[in-house]
Amino acid sequence: MAFAGEEGGGARKLWVFFMPFFATSHIIPITDLACLFAGHPGVEPTIVTTPANANLIRPTLDRHAASGCHVHLLLHPFPSVDLPYAIIADICYWWTTDIAGELGIPRITSHAAGVFPQIVMNNLVKNRVHDNVPNDSHPFTIPDLPGPEIKMVKSELPEFLQKHDFLTQAWDDLKRSQLESYGVVVNTFYEFEREYCDLFKVVDSQRAWFVGPLALRGKREVEAGFNKERCMRWLEKKEIGSVVFVCFGSWCHFKDEQLRELALGLEGSGMDFIWVVRGGDDENMKMEWMPEGWEERVKDKGLVFKGWVPQAAILGHEGVGVFMTHCGWNSVMEGLSFGKPMLTWPLAFDHFISERLLVEVLKVGVRVWDGFRSTLQNEKVVVPAEAIARAMKKFSEKDSEEMKKRAMEWKKITGATVEKDGSSYKDLNCLIDELLMFYEKKKNDSIFEHYLQGMVILLPLCYRRVPSFGFVSLAATRGLSGVGVPPRIIKVVFTCRSREIGVMLLVLMLLFTVISMLAKFSRYYLKPENAKCTMLNIEFHNVTLKHA
């Protein structure tokens, strides 16, 4: 039965396992990457996931399958002893590097974060300059960064950097695994993080491929049923660039008090908006935090969703002019892919670092709040409605035109990078080609090793009856079998059950040869009949040597 790489008993494809971390922000980009792999002949991708997460993946896979790009889902214990030829696993699965090494296959590390936040976190782990600041709000400079100077405050760092004993061993395991893996694939593109990509290749990976934006490459439009239809109908009625899209990812959430302030801020801005509130898929779920009468007051200006929406489709609509985001990396990539300037409201982990890239390096973003902010949930400060409205209004002013132009320029760049001869297009093909070459080499080596399983080819000096045959006789005493091909092509082959024994015997053979030469060969010639072994005078015929 053909399975996982077999085609009706024919040639086997390059079988690659994709192992996403079980969070939406990790699953989506690695699913997009698997679909891109499926578009290449000779590659068969399989996503390893749980039944609970399969429903999130299947719509994307079904859509690509309709165009002939098939990705398998593995939802049960492996039904075969067959091994994949490569593993592309989320960085959280650091242990897959060791397993892949034992199996002799490459493990590629997949990142949900961009290169810039990774470089910043690495440098802070090494230098820990933030440990010397007088308080959590005191700014410090990120060391050893190319490009413009970047300042941060301790309260906005990931929790593992704020606390010495928090996830330090886990971080060490992740980075060791990444450096020892075959390479790293990142959802970014070279032009976006040029200087940081160059540094990343040198200090943080053996190889690196920048293949994003994955959402743009896959032309992904996640099925969202009624939400999608309702959203598109509403947007069609709005002026170009007039709508603010407000979405904070799949797992970030606010307390009720902050939700009320956000609602009032959206209303106070006077701008049209689409707001995605994290709270489940139940359209009838009551939102008790909502200000009294608010829905009625904004019914012509705003649209509120309580579940999943097609983010890429919304951002791609010309009616949307601004994206209010938590700065999760997938959202950063999608916002730039569609040329949207961003209102930044980072919440956790690397979000504040990614915000620095948008606001201070690329200058395509504006902070919603300039007061105290923290990645720690118990330190969150409620951002007032007035500040939210004030930040939104900046995009209705003339001063924002340059920022909008810069954002639209990135739309052109991202479009070019995924087309043929673009940097991401080339990197994706380079990654697949390298895996195919690794696979072909391993396949050829396997054929050779099958023939030489426990075999050593002895190539002694070309004299008649050289001491190698005496060595074969000694090998026979260890229960080994061998082949002798004498005079003109003097070659002895024997098989053993251990490569280590084979190497040891080869070294002994060379020593035997040197000693015999020094002793003037003739005194140490070993006659075949005395060796209790069989000699052949016909080249390339095999005969088994057995110790008598």
UniProtKB/TrEMBL annotation:
Superkingdom per UniProt: Eukaryota
**Which residue spans adopt a coiled-coil conformation according to this UniProt entry?**
none
Q: What class of enzyme is it?
A: transferase
Q: Which UniProt keywords apply?
A: Glycosyltransferase, Membrane, Transferase, Transmembrane, Transmembrane helix
Q: Where are the transmembrane segments?
A: 501-519
EC numbers listed for it are 2.4.1.-
Q: Has the keyword Iron-sulfur been applied to this entry? A: no
Q: Name one GO molecular function term.
A: UDP-glucosyltransferase activity
Q: Which Pfam families match?
A: UDPGT
CDD domains found in the cross-reference section: GT1_Gtf-like
Report the InterPro entries cross-referenced here.
UDP_glucos_trans, UDP_glycos_trans_CS
Name the family: Belongs to the UDP-glycosyltransferase family.
- Name of the protein: Glycosyltransferase
User: Which taxonomic lineage does the organism of this UniProt entry have?
Assistant: Eukaryota, Viridiplantae, Streptophyta, Embryophyta, Tracheophyta
Gene giving rise to this polypeptide: LOC120282175
